[in-house]
Structure formats: structure tokens, C-alpha cells
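Sequence in, structure out.
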Amino acid sequence: MGITRRRLIYGGLAVGGGLIVYAGSRVLDTGGDGDARLKYGATTPDSHALNAWVKIAPDGRVTFAVHRAEMGQGITTSLPMLLAEEMDADWSRIDYEFGPVDKDYYNFGVMARGRPFGETEGRFFAELGTNLLRRVFHAQGMSLTLSSTSIIDAYDTLRPAGAAARAMLVAAAANRWGVPAERLITRASRVIDPTTKKSSGYGELAEDAALLEPPSDPPLKKREDYTLLGRSLPRLDVPDKVAGAAMFGSDVVLPDMLYATVVHSPVAGGAIGSFDASEAERAPGVEAVLELGNTALAVVADNTWAALSAAKRIRVEAAPIAAAVNSNTQAADYLDALGGPDPSLFREDGDALAVLQAEGTDVEAVYQWPYLAHACMEPMNCTALYEGDKLQVWVGSQALSVAQEVAAGVAGLEKSQVTMHRMLLGGGFGRRAEMDFVERAVATAMQLPGRPVKVIYSREEDMQNDMYRPAGVARVRGRVGDDGAISAIDFELVTQSVVASYAKRTKSPRPSNAASDQTVSTGIYNLFYTLPNMRLAFYPQDPHVPAGYWRSTSTSYGAFCVESFIDELAHHAQMDPVEFRLANLPTDSRQNTVLRAVADKAGWGQSMAANRYRGVALFEKAGNVIGQVAEITVSDDQTFTVDRIVCVMDSGQVFHPDTCIAMMEGGIVFGINAALFGEITLQDGVVQQSNFHNYRELPIAELPEIEVHLLPYGGRPSGVGETAVPGVAPAIANAIFAATGKRIRRLPIGQHLS
């Protein structure tokens, strides 16, 4: 049964115990229970916790709680910057800790993506609905690092937390000095009385401040008064990484620890039918081969290499499944599904079908894309110590609260009996929001009570037992008028629902009905061109392949379809690709501005060297508008190189420009690899790729020149973790068409040209 507005409102009232309407969205939302504050303060008893995110030592050193996963995106710097800015804290005396698991650290940004209250409801109901949802989601307490939402969520949570801490310190100083708080100022972790010139450091005031009630709606700084946000400050995580002291999940070493790896069914997402582990059990260093239900085997040894080596000696047969996937036949089946009965209509503006059925010339194209792996540099791993009535877990996870719940469920314990230790992630991209490696570690540790067990996947197990970016097909039809304006576009989308697939594997607050999962069409549904007539139809598929969140998921293939087709329409209209896009964009839109900027930065329209060509793509992701131009060189024998990618982004307010640019550069590289080579194929349900020899990544020496330009427009901040990925494939494909006249409608691109 779907979540209706009425059910949602009453659910919110039931959780909250009454109707509370907040004055605005700036709510210091700690639920009033103080759990996170107490847990956070307890890790350093000599410090004083002012709220769930701020504690101060007597020497004035300020430590901030980071409640999201760090996987290279710099969140351990960006979140403290938000707090430090509002606190007027001295950045040279800042540190961070990962916060404990607590419902106060829930991510409203990712959980509210599908909220039913929007601008069409009117401002009052939109704000009321948002705050009711906050209460509901706070009760669920999902701490997630997903969908480029950490900054979006923190903007409305951490600024008030920092401002509240500052107000408490000022109040403590005012009480001590017997003066009005209004006349005091703060600077560099000190409270100052300009009248008497008296001042005290935050460390001197912290104990008194911690006794005060935090204000619920403290005043926030104006942007023109910022001294930290917007600067590329030294990152807090870099010193440990440079020194080799940073602790990733695979770095965990505990006394008396055992080491394990896992062997799954050869069929992706399948069960084990039978196995022979006799050779592995006799291998040097092996302690045991354990059955983990019918899903996997754990090879336990006294060192990782012994476990990995022995695992190769196990012979596993898959349990039979009804419909094993073969990539070739799946592609044909998806094509056959186009135009089938009763699709889900996600968007229907005007009457696109009527326009396309009228007399005239249509443009039609079919686009296809493969499954993609995450291919994290650090394979999946988790360490667990089971001691009967308690469990400890060390893991790098994008969903730590979910991991705690899953671990408790496997062990038959309450969540309060499970202690989670957040580790750094050697790549996430959505893969580490999954729970399989947590389940495997806990199930293994339960058979070896009293000894910590580190479970790490081999590269081959990691790649062949992934939760893949779904494969799919789209048929697009469109028509352009004599004036170059798009009169109609019809999209038919055939793919797999990640939400439904994810819901089968782990608890999720999102709907699990595949037919209603609009997230499959993110890169298409929010199309920003002026379109009087548009239809978007979805034909859900449910193959026996686990689908998962991937760096930009549906926007990655949605942008490929949209921007490739827009280029085809431009060619049909005999217009320059940039000029055609501009003609179909509102003149005062962010998209118009970004497109003009990227064309200018890339030198669009200017002459180029022989055999060098450009392609363009424009798209949105997570509140950002991004334009990308790819420059390629195509030789006479049809080999080509990607020489340059120019990217312009309007992401609203940027907290740390250097980190933002670095994220975009990394995303472009990620997008290039996926566009040129990325492909997971299956034969009788078995993934054919196993390591980087047949799931290729570009070496650094072959990477193109990358330019990233940020437009300084301000506005609300947006997340940029996934933002650079989607436009790379269509920009390169459009450049290839400019060079060769050949349309690339099936990814990866590398299979079409040398």
C-alpha cells in the first residue's frame, strides 16, 4: 500500500505526539533526547559536549562530530567548516571524530528525495510537510551517505548546531562577566567584550556553556560575513593519509584476529547448490571453512593470503535458478519490451503521441547501456567480534545505521548491543551502502566467538558479486519545427528498479514497487528543455541480477540518452549543437548560462587542429547544472583518443573550491572509464569480468586534460559527489559523430571504435 498524504501526516503526529509547526527549516533537530550528545561526549570525558556535533576541550581545542562516511570526497573537512564558520572557531585548532550511530544523525536529504510535499502544495503546506517528515525520519534514524546529499542535508543542520554552540559560549561569558550577551562578539575561538577588552577562550567557557539549554533557532551568519566557507582550507584528513596513519576498513588489526575471505555462488545473486572444500581445508594456515547459510562460504585462516589462496581450491556449483541471465538475449528481450501494454507513465505533458503521429518527419533512436560494476579500489571488507551478548563491527559503510540493524539481526541481538566503528572507505560509489559484506562478517564471527574476524573479498569475488548499475534500453522519438524548436519528445524506458532490488536485500524506507519507482528515470524525468509535449513511459524488468546504487545511477544512462538525442535533433534541424540547445532553453535559466560558459571555455566554434573534434552535453544532477565539452582526435584508421574535457558547473554555494574541483575531476575520470570500457556481461547468470584485465580502467598516463570551472553564483549548496559522471559519455559520443558521422547509441563506446 502506498504512502498517502493522510497516512504520512498521521504517522508524523503519532511519532511526534502532537502537531508542531516550526517557523522555518532552520531547526536544530536533535530530537530532544540528548542521546547523540551523551554518546559523543562520552568518547572524551575531559571535553564538554555542547550538542551532538560540538565538544570543546579545556585547552580550547574544538572537536566536531562527522556523521557521514569519508570516501575521499572531503566530508571530514566540509562538515567541520560549516560548524566552525557559525562558531567563529579557530581553524588551526580544529579536529574531528566520526560520530556514533544515533538517530540524531539521520540524513533528511536522501530520505526526503521522494517527499510528496512540494512547491505545488503552497509554502505553508510544503514547510509543514517537510517538518512532519523530519519527525518521521528522525524516528527512523537512517544515517546514510548517499546520492550526493551530505552537504545538502548538513546545510540546514550543522549551521544551526554551530550557531547554537556559539550562543551558549557567549551566554556563559555574559553570565560570568555580568554583562549583556548582545554586546559580546566572537573571533578565533574566543568571546570578546569590546567595551572592557576582556576575553575568554572557548576552552575556559565550555564547562559552563555545556550546562545551558541550547537555543532551538539561533541566528545564522549572513553569507557576506563568512570567513571560512568558500575557502580552500587545509583538509583535516590529509595529514593522516600522507603519513599512512589513516585507518580504512582493510587496515583493521586486532589482538588474536583471524582472517577470512568468502566464496559465493558462481551465479550473480544466486545460492550455492553444492561445494567441495576438502582441498581448501588442508591448505596451510587455514583454520576452517564455514557455511554462511546457502549464500556463501567463509575460508578462515591465520592470515589473509592463506585465506585467499585456499579459497581458489574450493569447487562450487550454483543452485538452479529459473531464468539465468544471458546478456545477448537480455538485450533482445528488453528491445521486445518497448511499446508493451500498461507502462508506468512518469511524465505526460501535452500530447506527445498525437504530435508524433501527425504528418511530419520524426527522429527516432534506440539507446542501450550495460550493467556496470563499482570496482572500488578497496575490496569489500568488514571485521566483527562476537561475544555472545555483544557485538563489535569495524566497517567502512555508506549506511552505518543500517549496518548496525543488519548486524544485530544476523546476531540475534538488540541494536544497543552492537557497537559500530566507522572506518574510512577506499571508494564507495553506492557499493558500500550494501550489507552483504557486513552479513558475511557477522555470520562468520558468530561461529568463532571471542575472536575478531576480518572478512575481505578477493577482487574477483568483489567484481562478480557486485550490485550492478542496471542495464537498459530506451527508445526516443522527437520532432523539431521549422523554427528549430522541439515540438515533442517521447521516451520509452526499459530497465530494472534499483529501489525494488535494494528492498529485497535490506530494509529501506523507500517504496519497493518497481512500476512506481521514478528514480529509474532521474536523468530523463527532470528534463529542462522547453518541451510543450513530452511523454515518459517506463517498462519495469526484474532479471535475476542484483541491481544497486552506482555513482549517479539513472542519471548516468539518462543523460546519455537525452543529450545524444538532443544532438540528433540538432543535426536533423541543421543547427549547431550548442545553438540548438540554446534555442530550446529559457534565456534566463541556469542551463542557458552554464551552456554559454562551457562553450566559451572550450572555445566552441573556434578552429581546431586536423582530425580534432568537439561534442557537448548539458545536464542536471543533485541540484547542479553541468556543461561538458569533450575534445577528441580521430585518426584515419578510426582509432581515437579523448584529449580534453572542459566542465563548467553551477552548484550554488561552494564550501571548499579545491575539494569541489577535485571531486569533479575524479568524476570525469570515472565517467570516461564507464563510457569507453565499462561493461559487465553475463552468461548463464555468471559474470564474465573478474578483475581489471577485463574490466578496464584508463591508466593515468592516458587521461585527457581536464578543466573544471565553477560559476560563482552562490545560492543553496548542492552535492557534487556524482555530478561529473553523467555528461562524459554523451559528450564523447557527440564528438565522435562530429568526427565520423557515426552515431554511438550503445555503450560502451570502445566496442564501436578502436
